[in-house]
Amino acid sequence: MVHANAALTPRARLRLARLIVEDGWKPSEAARMFMVSTVTARKWAARFRAERPAGMVDRSSRPRSCPRRTPEHVKRRIVTLRWRHRLGPVQIGGRLGLAPSTVHAVLVRCRLNRLRHIDRVTGEPIRRYEHPRPGSLIHVDVTKFGNIPDDGGWRYVGKQHGYRNKAQTALRTGRTPKGHPNIGTAFLHTVIDDHSRVAYAEFCPDETAASAIGVLQRAVEWFADRGVTVERVLSDNGSCYRSHAWRDACQALEITHKRTRPYRPQTNGKIERFHRTLADGWAYARFYRSEAERRAALPGWLHFYNHHRPHSALGALPPISRIENNLPGHHT
Fold it and tell me: What is the extent of the structural domain holding 215?
């Protein structure tokens, strides 16, 4: 690419070369006209004679040979240490007797200079994906939160006070098996669109197939009200998603069901990351006096997440921005 202060562009080079080769100008005269050196004028004229107009474009500044380049077997050892042990350039250089700058240059060429680009389980570069339009794929999952006792939980009132609140709440609700206070678990079924990251969430009393199917049906209607047609759904291998009832429900909704590979939650990483955002932004973000108060705050937080919260994967725009732009024919 021609830089901003270049004296000659490809079009100007062609004019210069034609003045010398076709019109018979002296290189010094043509160089003076274009305010470049005579050596430069001769260079472009020679390229024009050899390659015609195709020779006027920029060439790579990369050398034709690099005899001191890091050998291939050393490069493989650097990559192996990076993958398997997640070492930095200084540690790798110390083991192999190389300069850290050399190791860093190899890692940059292999696109392994950032540890976040490497999968923690396999050690291979992370392959990221995004479906091309809203509704092309939705992720579903269930996340669990311990219910908050009356007058607050231990995260905000301390463990001793929180345990007393939990015991009193358990006595009130009658949930005291074997003398240990138990105030139950909140099952939050979540749905997130792969392309837009728009989220839908709903509390259910359990994580059975019947509850999961009900959430899926209502989520499909919720997306349809916003002009999005759900085509595929991705889930983990939970029992509710492996049931025949779930399979039949997907067929009735004309949705293709896909499951992640066992022990591979990274495949469903978008919704797993949403659960972390959900916990930080809503579940444990502030002091709640009861579980009912926390549940009442969920719709407002979801509206903030979908309509106002900047999303780093969307260029600091809220998720709903990709739904509002889903005009007919926009995503094909």
Answer: 138-147+184-325
